[in-house]
Amino acid sequence: MYIFFMVQGYLHIQFQADTFSANPDDPDKLRCRPGIAYNTDPSNRYKDDPKKGKQITGQHKTLTAQKGLREQMHSLGYPVELEVSERHNESLNPDRYAEQQDWERDLANRESEVELKRRSVQRDMDATQRDRKQDADELKKAQRIQQNAEEQARKVADRVLQEACEKAEQDAEQIRSDARKEAEHVEGLAEVVRPEGEETSTPVHPLR
Predict the structure, then answer these.
(1) What's the structural domain count of the chain?
(2) Is 125 part of a structural domain of the chain?
(3) The pLDDT of residue 115 is above 80
(4) How distant is the alpha carbon of residue 149 from its chain centre?
(5) Residue 143 burial (CB < 10 Å; 0-12/13-18/19+)?
(6) Which of 31, 128, 148, 197 has the fewest CB atoms within 10 Å around its CB?
(7) Does some domain include residue 202?
(8) pLDDT of residue 208
């Protein structure tokens, strides 16, 4: 069976079950099993020195059971303190309990605010990182464009210079050709106007 009742505005529930077991000393009677488990009982005695034969106290049974429970919970990953803390005998009156609850809510709110700020800072850092990466990519792209432009400009300049040199060489060759033709023409005229039998004292050589 179970019972519901209210204590200081809080709902409590108690369970009651058949906790009796057979009594080996008197088969016609029953004995309380929880009393054997958590209280001093003649059937529970130390088996090893230095307290061999003495009854195990209820306090020792309770401490042993609590220690085993803590170790079991800790092994399962629960945040349980393995050692008995200095707070184990503390009790809270309604005012202190309400104060404790207010403090825990305030702490939870602060932790929530810290988490929100952390996420906001993380978002800002991620955005800054993305911007830096984008700027770096754009800078590399601009550098590639500038490098290509400079390479194209060098190629154009080399081509223009080569064409200018070729044109200058062609012009120079044309001038030399024209000069040779002019010299040959002048020499031919001199041969025509020279009297027969007269030798020219100064020979005329074509330009080279």
Answers:
(1) 1
(2) no
(3) yes
(4) 39
(5) exposed
(6) 197
(7) no
(8) 47
Angle at 76 between CA 74 and CA 78, to 5 degrees: 55
Q: Report residue 66 CA to chain centroid gap.
A: 42
Residue that has been written with the tokens 């020195």 in this structure? 49
- 3-state SS of the chain is CEEEEEECCEEEEEECCCCEEECCCCCCCEEEHHHHHHCCCCCCECCCCCCCCCECCHHHHHHHHHHHHHHHHHHCCCCCCCCCCCCCCCCCCHHHHHHHHHHHHHHHHHHHHHHHHHHHHHHHHHHHHHHHHHHHHHHHHHHHHHHHHHHHHHHHHHHHHHHHHHHHHHHHHHHHHHHHHHHHHHHHHHHHHCCCCCCCCCCCCCCC
Q: Is the pTM of this model over 0.70?
A: no
Q: Is the pLDDT of residue 201 over 70?
A: no
